[in-house]
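User: Hey, my collaborator sent me this sequence without any context and asked if I could get a structure. I don't really work with proteins. Can you help?
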Amino acid sequence: MSHLKKEMPSMFGKDTKKKELLNGLADTFASLQQQHQISAGDFPNLQRMQEQLQYHDFSKFPLLKPKLLETVDRMLAVDIARLMTMIPKEEEQRADTAVVKVQLFAFCCQLTSAVELTS
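Assistant: No problem. I've predicted the 3D structure and written it out in C-alpha cell form, which is a compact way to encode the shape of the chain:
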C-alpha cells in the first residue's frame, strides 16, 4: 500500500497512474517479495486485490514505518521463537498431570472395590 502511495502523483494524472499501477500490480508484488524476503503465499490474490484497489484513493494509504517493521521482525525472530520453546514444556506438564489423574482414578477405583468387598 505504501509503495502505491509513493508512486502516485501529487496533482495531475492520478487516474492514469492508478490504472498503470493496478495493471503492474504483479510486478509490484514480485518486487516487494524480493525486497522484503516475503513468500508469494503471503500476498493476496492478485485479481481480487486489483478489483478491491480500484475503489480506493492511493494517496490516502499510510506510508511504511521502518521502525514498526523492525519491531515486528524482531518480535517474530526473538519473542515468538522464545514462546515456541515454552510450548513443549507446557504440553509435557499437561501430559504429566494427565498421567497423575489416570493413576489417581485407578487408585480410587481400587479403593472403591476394596470397600465394597469388605462391606
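In plain terms: The first helix runs from residue 2 to 7. You can pass these C-alpha cells on to your collaborator as they are.
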